[in-house]
Amino acid sequence: MSFAILSALLGFAFVTTVTPGPNNLMLMASGANFGFRRTLPHMMGIVGGMSVMALLVGTGLMALFDAVPALNLVLKVISVGYLLWLAFRIATTAPLEERDADSRPMTFLQAATFQWVNPKAWAMCLSAVTLYAPDRSLLSVAIVAAAFTLVCFPAISVWAWLGTVVRQWLSNATRLRIFNFTMAALLVTSLYPVLGFGT
């Protein structure tokens, strides 16, 4: 892979991971509700899950979805259902003083697993492999996965940090409820392209 193509790949990985989507909206909500430090496992899970997903998509899953188109519909239904459930959970997150002891942010494993029902993650990985590893060789696919590993954490950490910036302002229970409801609504809105209405 030439330096120019590698630079383009890193740029693609950064832009796609830093722009709004389910992961980043959930990180902002987590940063606001739980703080940056407690959101770190969530962030690391996204990085790990995204990297493994890119590797597996490039080494065989893409061919499977090409061979069995019905799997795309199954994935879409599961993804939409799960994202709607997550949006409900965010919208109904209680203010800090009302939370029970079990209230906690997403774990590493939960965040890594979430990538498999995250429509944006699928689109990113499929596009990256198609554009930057068209031969689907192990080396080129590994480079794509490594690019996501390298740039994903700094890109997504901005969103968790933004959540912590508004955390103090959200100490008011009413404002926190409005914020959580807004984050949930934006998460549902992010389904717009998945449902076939967008590009």
Provide structural commentary.
With 199 residues, this protein is an all-alpha fold. The protein has one domain. 75% of the residues lie in helices and 0% in strands. The protein has helices at 3-18, 22-34, 36-67, 70-91, 108-114, 119-132, 138-165, 173-189. The chain starts with a helix and ends in a 10-residue tail after the last helix.
Please count the helical segments: 8
- Give the low-pLDDT segments: none
Number of strands: 0
Oligomer: single chain
Taken in chain order, the helices and strands follow as: HHHHHHHH
Number of domains: 1
State the distance separating the first and last CA atoms.
Answer: 29 Å
Relative strand content: under 5%
Main sheet properties: none
Helix content: over 70%
Q: Characterize the overall form.
A: globular
Mean pLDDT: 85
Using only CA atoms, what is the Rg? 17 Å
The structure class reads mainly alpha
